[in-house]
Amino acid sequence: MAFEIKLTLTCPRCGSRLTLREYGKYVQLYCSECGLSVAIRKRVILMRHVNYDEEVLDWSSALDFLYSLLKGKATASY
Ligand SMILES: [Zn+2]
Q1: Is pLDDT above 60 for 78?
Q2: What is the whole-number distance in angstroms between the Cα of residue 2 and the centre of ligand 1?
Q3: Rounded CA gap, 45 and 34, in Å?
Q4: pTM across the whole model
């Protein structure tokens, strides 16, 4: 089962709205217009962005991380 939703975040390459997709062991941020995409394992999000003392997920920092990876890809491909 996959989860997919449009975001208000825009593509660093073409400016279209990005889609957040969750499938299997991955969370993917991608642009349906230009095909720019980045995927990371959910385990990485659990390791980097969950505060286990308080049992909270810092989703905005997880999304920032994904977006920074995507921006890196957008500039690297030029
Ligand atoms: Zn794009």
Answers
A1: no
A2: 21
A3: 25
A4: 0.86
